[in-house]
Amino acid sequence: MSDRLFIFDTTLRDGEQVPGCQLNTVEKIQVAKQLEALGVDVIEAGFPISSPGDFNSVIEISKAVTWPTICALTRAVEKDIDVAAEALRFAKHKRIHTGIGTSDSHIRYKFNSNREEIIERAVAAVKYARRFVDDVEFYAEDAGRTENEYLARVVEAVIKAGATVVNIPDTTGYCLPYEYGAKIKYLMEHVDNIDKAILSTHCHNDLGMATANTIAGVLNGARQVEVTINGIGERAGNTSLEEVAMIIKCHNDIDIETNINTQKIYPASRMVSSLMNMPVQPNKAIVGRNAFAHSSGIHQDGVLKNVQTYEIIDPKDVGIDDNAIVLTARSGRAALKHRLHVLGVEMEQDKLDKVYEDFLKLADKKKDITDDDILVLAGADRADNHHIKLDYLQVTSGVGVRSVASLGLNISGEHFEAAASGNGPVDAAIKALKKIIDRQMTLKEFTIQAISKGSDDMGKVHMQVEYDGQMYYGFGANTDIIAASVEAYIDCINKFKR
Ligand code: KIV
Ligand code: ZN
């Protein structure tokens, strides 16, 4: 029988740490349910002591999800562990994930400590966590740069103290695949009680090697992998779930199985990208827009003769179905509801009616409605509680003339209007906006997501605005790209801490 590889998803913890990707509790529950349908074994739901929002999300996800283990992160600190145990109280299967830095630089600069004391703190944290739960995972932060001999001592000590899983993070994404694989092999061979626990990989992608390192870890004995949907995560991200799942599925030479229902990969990817306002790069393996697009003549010729000439994955295996019903202005509520269900979004009748109304308006403007469009419409009510809303926008622009914009805002029920000229339509519109909202704010980043299907497509705008020393992230989506830009700016302003 094949070995089982456990999939530990940390989209809602390590993934959600990305600035601008924060989700509210309702959105996190949506993602958690999608992860459950996908078949992940463990959902890392948050870091409860870090904020009341994280604490609450762990509670609500524990109630909403049935069979995956719910995991909460802590430092090797008793108070953290108390709070995590409290947040996990409704989970059917629960795990506390505690740990401490083990590399010399962490020991010296972060903890001003020494190796022996770190082992003592690690052991104490695991023992303390075992008072609350039977399933305790220990992470040796920066294990990638921790000397193997010392790491083996830490691993042995925490297993003896009761750790059921030991996580070996390459926190900085520094390791080469052969090095990371050798590290796991070393631990498998030199830790006396290694048969009493599972070794886990946790690789970051700073040098683009997260997936390769993860697979090297698995080939050398790790039986849990820590991953995120679309590989999101701080800096260059974490190992991507879809890449690992498809490598294991495609490579019959790797005699290992996961519980992942790969046909749910694409809907999960779209949902996370949409809720977190985090575009997926077009050439991203497995889930990028171009992942299955053959454009060169030689490739197209080969694919037409036999698809296996250039395609190692059937797009249907990851949930991309080109024959899926196309939604148009003539589609009914049932078709929309079905598509939302396929994308993992369930909603009450009231909300469905509202989304359907918006869907018809959009379908009047553009021919085919994509999954992305539907997810944007489904999340549009995120702006409902904004105190500043765009009432109207009018822009004139052209070649050889200065652009002029006039706009109206509704601020907590009061109406304001302004007009301005600028170097282009977006510049003019934002200048008009700034005449009404008179604050020292600076646009730092402005990304327009590529239009994928046609000139009538919905444009998506991501913005970062600096205000009062803080960075705020905003998102706007509209068939009119100027309106999407203004909406993204207003989304930022609504988040200002007043
Ligand atoms: O990258 C890392 O080391 C982590 C740990 C907290 C598990 O995310
Ligand atoms: Zn990490």
List the helices and strands and how they pair.
Blueprint lengths: L2 E2 L1 E4 L15 H14 L3 E5 L5 H13 L4 E5 L4 H10 L6 E8 L2 H7 L4 H16 L5 E6 L6 H14 L3 E6 L6 H14 L7 E6 L6 H10 L4 E4 L13 H10 L5 E2 L7 H11 L21 H9 L27 H10 L6 H17 L5 H8 L9 E9 L6 E9 L2 E9 L2 H12 L4 E9 L9 E9 L2 E9 L2 H14 L4
Parallel strand pairs: 1-10, 2-3, 2-9, 3-4, 4-5, 5-6, 6-7, 7-8, 8-9
Antiparallel strand pairs: 11-12, 12-13, 14-15, 15-16
Helix pairs in contact: 1-2, 1-10, 2-3, 5-6, 6-7, 7-8, 10-14, 15-16
The structure holds 3-methyl-2-oxobutanoic acid (KIV) and zinc ion.
Q: Enter the CATH topology name of the largest domain.
A: TIM Barrel
Distance between the termini: 60 Å
- Please tally the helical runs, counting DSSP H or I stretches of 4 or more residues: 16
Strand proportion, as a percent range, falls in: 15-25%
Main β sheet profile? 8 strands, parallel, barrel
Large-scale geometry: globular
Mean pLDDT: 91
CATH superfamily of the largest domain: Aldolase class I
- The top level CATH class name of the largest domain: Alpha Beta
Question: Can you describe what's shown?
Answer:
The protein is 38% helix and 20% strand. The protein is built from 16 helices and 16 strands. The protein has helices at residues 25-38, 52-64, 78-87, 104-110, 115-130, 148-161, 177-190, 210-219, 241-250, 265-275, 297-305, 333-342, 349-365, 371-378, 425-436, 481-494, and strands spanning 3-4, 6-9, 42-46, 69-73, 94-101, 136-141, 165-170, 198-203, 224-227, 256-257, 388-396, 403-411, 414-422, 441-449, 459-467, 470-478. The strands form 4 sheets. It has an 8-stranded parallel β-barrel with strand order 2-3-4-5-6-7-8-9, surrounded by 8 helices. Strand 7, helix 7 and strand 8 form a beta-alpha-beta unit. The chain is globular and about 75 Å long. Bound molecules: 3-methyl-2-oxobutanoic acid and zinc ion. 3-methyl-2-oxobutanoic acid binds next to strand 6 and strand 7.
